[in-house]
Amino acid sequence: PLSELEVGAEVEATVKTTTSYGAFIDIGAETDALLHVSRLSDDFVANVEDVVKVGDTVTVRIVSVDTDKGQVAVTMRSEAAEAEAKAATSGGGGGGRRRERPQRSGADRAAQAAAINALAESSFSDETFVEGEVVSTLDFGAFVRFDTASLGEGLEGELDGLVHISALQAQRTGSVSDVVSVGDKVQVRVKQVDAKGGKISLSMISKEDEPAPRERRQNNRGGGRQMFSDSEMGAKDWKESLEKSLEDQPKFVNSFVIEDKRKVKA
């Protein structure tokens, strides 16, 4: 039973399946344990199968046991690396401190750039939801890693995109941590891809439920905001209409009136 598993204990296990976000490990318990991709090594790992493959025998350390949910998490990282990661993701405050986005190697960054360009050039649907995993949280949103292969034929590679705090749920969100945490599996859709800037905008809200963007107001004098939007100003030909209306009105012409106020002598 899971209740007999001891956190911190090392066990020999067998890799049963691999996914984009980690591997499920047979540790001899009633349920398989999850070896998350972030816990495969002290170094950053882009591809799970670069480290483990189905059938491999590995030594892992138990990091958490949830008997209510029937979930077990294990790690192949050193204790020092686990302690550092835990310290980075903990902290007080509304939004909370967090670990920064994983830094990628030069070769991996090149692969990321290629994957972003391929996604930008593809005909992906901005209404399609795919599964992703929260890899880091910030005060203004969360970075979610997803597999581009889920978005279309010919696409491959995992990418990180930002779900802005306003795109976490339809209702107003006070704090990112109220909705998601690192390691959560979420459903996201790709809204925009900036291949040049290497940025991807994601949303956890369906396109039909997404709030309409506020109408941008431009300043006639440049730089600031116009006092009224076009809809508030009414018809664009209001000036011409006013002039025509005035032309149809009776015209009055002012003339001088001379009044002699001199006193006449008797």
From TrEMBL:
Residues 8-77, 127-205 form the S1 motif domain. Residues 206-218, 233-246 have a biased composition (Basic and acidic residues). GO terms for molecular function: mRNA binding; structural constituent of ribosome. Gene3D superfamilies: Nucleic acid-binding proteins. Pfam families: S1 (PF00575). PROSITE patterns: S1. One of its GO terms (biological process) is translation. One of its GO terms (cellular component) is cytoplasm. SUPFAM superfamilies: Nucleic acid-binding proteins. Residues 82-110, 205-246 are annotated as: Disordered. Associates with the EF-Tu.GDP complex and induces the exchange of GDP to GTP. It remains bound to the aminoacyl-tRNA.EF-Tu.GTP complex up to the GTP hydrolysis stage on the ribosome. This is S1 motif domain-containing protein.
